User: Fold this.
Amino acid sequence: MQERRRRVPRLEAGWSGKYRFEDDPESAWGECQILDISVLGARLEICEPVRKDLIGREITVEFQTAGASNIVRLVAVVRNVDSRSEERRVGKECRSR
Assistant:
């Protein structure tokens, strides 16, 4: 089986973080895992059931990398949702502010 090629390389992360949806004032921070990250986006596993209507919503993610003291904050738009398995993965595309 041929490995799928990505536009840009991704860095495996495995960092714990938190997320919330910016377009929902009732949204509380939830726990997530940052699985991998690139200059174009990140892949998350969120710790709650995923709804298909997340695509197109703005999400904020905050995390610390291993050994770092600074908190990284990403604001992005959800571009992909995979809820076929027990793992709930969200692909997000970052944009600059």
